[in-house]
Write a structure and sequence with these properties.
NTF2-like_dom_sf, 17 strands, elongated, 3 domains, 24% helix, alpha+beta, NTF2 domain-containing protein, 5-stranded mixed sheet, Alpha-Beta Plaits, Nuclear Transport Factor 2, Chain: A, Leucine-rich repeat, LRR (right-handed beta-alpha superhelix), single chain
């Protein structure tokens, strides 16, 4: 092609040794479809080949011919998409690293993905390549029935039309809450014709995620909407503070010994700084939470009517009857914590558990004692999911479970 092409296509499921056969097949298919476009096979990488097209219109015509078709000697159909050549390597690397943590049973959760790509998904070749690389790296692609793009900055959603059923033939539901495209009636009408249910209201998300559960602490799923793991009760020695005449008084945080932690690990150091600022500077915590995919919730164990812990009940998220009581986004999370903790999260951790789920994904669980500004003391378990995929640490999920201290 004499001049630099203006569009590139990636095609999945074509190995390098099959390139010549693919070229012959494509020439025949274009002839059958009476499609006359100028293109050339550019290069191959992994199980993909790149095609250079004269312009975006030609590229889209090629995608329509290739997508879902296959050669007789191949069992896997071809998956094709227009890509952004300059961003391609970054997008491919990010999606292939993330995909295992983003798939749970029949759910592909790409909520907040724009924050990791740092480019609007509606630009040519961005959203379409995310879908292509997610589909081609998803081992159960043909079983995916739900996809979430919550809060992903999608304004037009053209890349979602036409190809979803090709990539994910059993897809039934698509969650787009928090994206401007849900206000575009033409987009919604186009999606309706594809027989995919579009979720646009937060109150419908509980049903959307109803089959997604966390079975153990090493199988967490990242999502700004998925119910966090059930709290782990601490194996703490029952502490009381016997005083005069054998009377037992509630303990204060100073009756407990705080545990130590190795700050040579970057994640541990990050959490130590977070806890220090939680104690003395709640407004500064905004920078610790992921700008899009962060969630905060509180669970309170049932308490007596006269218990000082009763004040916390209105913030509690009962996973059986009050699943929607949670906060998303750094600003709202910090505002909620100021309302709940007032001046600071005065806590002594007595035990810490950490797990590295992936090189870029970590869990951090604290067990200990918390004292509110009124002098009341409660036990707590606090679990975090932390991402370091972009080179910076961000909290994705923060849940606190409060319960009263034993006095015997």
């Amino acid at each position: 092609m004499g001049e630099r092409p203006t569009a590139f296509i990636a095609v999945a499921n074509v190995k390098q040794e099959q390139q010549n056969s693919f070229e012959e097949w494509l020439t025949a298919k274009l002839g059958d479809a009476k499609v006359d476009v100028e293109y050339q096979i550019s290069q191959s990488f992994n199980d993909f080949i790149l095609i250079e097209a004269k312009d975006l219109h030609s590229a889209n015509q090629l995608v329509r011919v290739i997508n879902g078709a296959s050669m007789e000697d191949l069992s896997e159909p071809f998956l094709a998409a227009v890509i952004n050549f300059e961003k391609n390597n970054d997008i491919y690397t990010t999606i292939t690293q993330l995909i295992k943590s983003k798939v749970k049973d029949d759910l592909l959760d790409l909520s907040g993905i724009q924050s990791l790509i740092s480019t609007p998904l509606d630009l040519p070749g961005i959203g379409s390549s995310i879908l292509l690389y997610a589909a081609s790296n998803c081992s159960n692609r043909t079983e995916i029935s739900q996809i979430s793009f919550i809060k992903s900055g999608i304004t037009k959603g053209f890349f979602l039309q036409n190809v979803l059923k090709t990539y994910f033939p059993k897809l039934k539901k698509l969650a787009l809450n928090g994206n401007p495209c849900i206000n575009n009636q033409q987009f919604l009408a186009n999606m309706k014709r594809s027989k995919i249910q579009i979720i646009t209201k937060d109150e419908d998300l509980n049903e959307f995620f109803q089959d997604v559960e966390m079975k153990n602490s090493k199988a967490l799923v990242i999502s700004c909407r998925i119910v966090p793991m059930h709290p782990i009760n601490p194996n703490l020695v029952k502490l009381g503070n016997p005083r005069a005449q054998g009377r037992i008084e509630p303990p204060t945080i100073y009756d407990f010994d705080t545990c130590g932690i190795d700050v040579s690990k970057p994640i541990n150091k990050f959490m130590v700084e977070f806890m220090k600022n939680s104690w003395k500077d709640l407004p500064s915590l905004k920078s610790y939470y992921h700008p899009i995919s962060s969630v905060f919730s509180v669970l309170v164990k049932g308490c007596a009517p006269d218990s000082p812990m009763k004040r916390l009940l209105k913030y509690s998220r009962d996973v059986s009857i009050n699943t929607g009581n949670f906060i998303t986004g750094p600003s709202d999370i910090v505002s909620a914590q100021i309302e709940i903790f007032v001046k600071g999260f005065y806590a002594y951790p007595t035990r810490i558990e950490t797990y590295d789920l992936e090189d870029f994904l970590h869990t951090f669980v604290l067990h200990g004692v918390y004292q509110d500004v009124y002098g009341n003391t409660f036990m707590f378990d606090r679990s975090f999911v932390i991402s370091s995929i972009t080179g910076s640490n961000f909290i994705l999920n923060d849940e606190i479970y409060f319960h009263e201290p034993p006095l015997e």
